[in-house]
Amino acid sequence: MTDTIEPSQRTHGRMSMWSVSALGIGSMVGAGIFALLGQAALMTGSDVYLSFAVGGVIALLSGYSYARLAARFPSSGGIMDYFDRAFPSKTVAGGLSVLYLVTQIVNIAMVSKTFGAYADRLLLGDVSAAYVANIFASAVVIVLFIVNMAGSGVVGRVEELLVGIKLVILTGLLVAGGASIDPAMLAKGPNVGPGILLASVGLTFFAYGGYGMMTNASGHVADPAKTIPRAIFLAIGVVIVLYIGLSVVVMGNISPDELARFATTAVAQAAKPVLGQAGFVVVSIGALFATASSINASFFCALEVSRGLAGKGQLPAVFERAAWGQGTRGLVWSAGAVLVMVNLLDLGAIAQVAGATILVCYLGVFAAHWRLHGEAGGSRLPIVVGAALMAVVLMAFAVSLWSTQPSAIWLTGLAVAGSLGIEWLVQRRRRSP
């Protein structure tokens, strides 16, 4: 297979390693940590930092496959391009790409629920009814859906500003909170065994999942073979340190009872004993910035993915038909699905489905690297170790869900089977005379 770098990509490499790293850090840091730290801590207690550490190791191994594939096949298609190249079955390749789109939609629902929870506590305190947070969540979905339909995305400079705000707020909390950690609090909570710990990685790994978006920049750098791998490992390394530090700060500053009560806003709750009410307000505002920018970016990603899949014949053509403005009918249906999940499911269930589906998608990337190893190169050992560890995490996660929230298992199975089924029907229809 020939090199896929187009002439325009060879001559317009304008992104440096630092720019690509900033893109990755911005994708990972923010919504994931605000949404998932509390949920993971409910499973593991003070051992949550170990969950983030294991998730970080898997992210590094998975990032290795992404880096090799992006260096060899630089394009804006990213994960969908790798599936198309690796799997001769259009049903498998397209089904995994559709599942990735489904994961983006579930992610929007999860982050929207988090936005609603922070907005509710910030504006109305701790006494409002549960449905009020859903109203805030639905409102931000509708507003940012309209923004994307109108064609307005988060431009690079604005996104860099938002990333800077998030990093300043979280770093400030990390520094201030580190000085006030109560060792006795870190000793409280369950000391979980390896089974529960691995199951919790099904949630914490999702907080790292944004590094996959960095490969979409591989067509915009001068030397992707060097720049993309360095940028991916730098970004993941920085985020590992930040996540582990924040998990220790949160568990060292709030009690298990507070965690159980305020799991959806655990990061802001941890700021209260450290920085007082002002700290809670600042961190909550940072969470609103982080979640809103993530929702907007994910809507834009869902728009582009659905349009691209329809353009390649991997989704029905109606998905790329214009609705109004620069939006498509596919985006309208995506927003409708998000609103249904926001109002019918709780944050824990949505996060668990999102965690499971992204593990399936990223296992597909390991398989794609294995199949394309002759062209992409690299050592096979990280592929084997990373895929095996991710598969163990997925199985442990599934076992845990089966005993605690079996509905999440059924929803995950429906997402996987539905994605493959839709692609099978699309391909069958294309083959029909």
Which series of helices and strands comes N to C? HHHHHHHHHHHHHHHHHH
Mean pLDDT: 81
Instruction: Indicate the low-confidence ranges by residue numbers.
Output: 1-13, 152-156
Any idea what the shape is? globular
**Pairing-aware structural class of the strands and helices?**
mainly alpha
Using the CA coordinates, give the radius of gyration. Answer: 21 Å
The biggest beta sheet reads: none
Report helical residue fraction. Answer: over 70%
Distance between the termini: 31 Å
Count of beta strands: 0
- Total of DSSP H or I helical runs spanning 4+ residues: 18
Our estimate of the beta-strand percent is under 5%
Account of the 3D structure:
The chain is globular and about 65 Å long. It contains 18 helices and no strands. Helix 6 runs antiparallel to helix 13 (266-311). The protein has 433 residues and is mostly helical. It starts with 6 loop residues before the first helix and ends with a helix.
